[in-house]
């Protein structure tokens, strides 16, 4: 599996609305970094599952799109846009880059997230 295949698999897993499928894209020893919010850093696939279970419960119609992608060395650079509506009608959109690495099995082993809320309007690719 190539790094771009892994990216496509993750996008499809998010859009399947199945937290287990999302978590299956990550290695057991996965490391997540959020430079703008260091207290959100974590390790492990179990936390991926817990986080995505909560996200998909709150936004059951969440849509994720990879707008741009590039590979440099052993890193995948991707720009994401996600939007959805909560059960109370609240709309949410986040956008931004994610930089990540995969192992030889195509599982994400490390990522740096720069995703941030955009507006209450759906994100449209340019």
From TrEMBL:
Q: This protein is called what?
A: Nuclear transport factor 2 family protein
In this chain the SnoaL-like domain maps to 12-109
Please report a single Pfam family linked to this protein. Answer: SnoaL_2
Task: Give the source's domain of life in one word.
Answer: Bacteria
Which residue windows are coiled coil? none
Gene3D superfamilies attached here? Answer: 3.10.450.50
